[in-house]
Design brief:
The protein is of the alpha+beta class. The protein has one domain: Aminopeptidase (3-Layer(aba) Sandwich), CATH 3.40.630.30. The chain has an 8-stranded mixed sheet with strand order 1-2-3-4-5-6-8-7, sandwiched between helices. A hairpin with a 2-residue loop joins strand 4 and strand 5. Helix 1 packs across helix 2. The chain starts with a strand and ends in a 9-residue tail after the last strand. It binds coenzyme A. The site of coenzyme A has 22 residues, from strand 5, helix 3 and helix 4.
Length: 177
């Protein structure tokens, strides 16, 4: 378990499913990520089990890192964070519910994630793919030190046709707002 100023971050686990469904089962959450993130606790249980099992021996360089994010003051479930590491580079993704949007919790969580991936997992080169209309996500990435690139030179797994690609390099500053 990890702590930031306002957040408690836990390795994603089976028992997070009900609270995550309650936080994320909202139509706005799926607007730019190809559909709803989760709709039922059963579906999320299945997905969490797959995510925590990892990619398996066919992809020896690939590892999946998933986290649930709570507000520390009251334990409210806010969303989840994920990183996939591929040896020398990584991609990150995040899904937060609308109930607590616009307060910087997602920014604080993603800032922690990119620092964790860089410092604890030793993967400085990080990527994210974003729908061009997902302005909140684009602003968030820029706040935590990502820059837009014309094209990706890595095969980002979460890339959908038309997405913008963002890259963060070692030592990129993470503005506080
Ligand atoms: C993308 C997503 C994480 C953005 O959430 P968000 O609520 O905008 O992010 P934050 O909670 O960090 O809030 C940021 C806003 O709060 C404001 N804010 C208030 N206090 C703040 C603080 N302490 N720190 C940072 N920002 C703060 C910022 O000014 C910012 O506003 P702005 O975007 O108008 O500049 C969220 O909409 C989401 O999960 N959507 C669904 C899934 C998705 O699209 N994921 C991304 C796929 S690429």
């Amino acid at each position: 378990m990890w702590h930031t100023e306002r957040l408690t971050i836990e390795p994603l686990a089976h028992e997070h499913a009900e609270e995550l469904v309650a936080a994320l089962d909202h139509e706005s959450v799926g607007a730019f990520i190809g559909g709803p993130d989760v709709t039922t606790a059963a579906a999320l249980h299945e997905r969490i089990d797959r995510l925590t099992t990892g990619p398996g021996p066919d992809w020896p360089d690939e590892r999946w890192w998933n986290f649930a994010v709570r507000r520390s003051s009251d334990g409210a479930m806010l969303g989840r964070l994920e990183a996939t590491t591929y040896g020398e580079w990584a991609e990150v993704a995040y899904v937060f519910g609308p109930a607590f949007a616009g307060r910087g919790y997602a920014t604080e969580g993603v800032r922690w994630l990119v620092g964790h991936v860089a410092d604890e997992l030793s993967v400085a080169e990080q990527w994210a793919a974003v729908h061009p209309d997902n302005l909140a996500s684009i602003r968030l990435l820029e706040r935590v030190g990502f820059q837009r690139e014309p094209v990706s030179w890595r095969p980002i797994g979460s890339f959908d046709d038309g997405d913008l690609v963002f890259h963060r390099h070692a030592g990129a500053p993470t503005a506080q707002r």
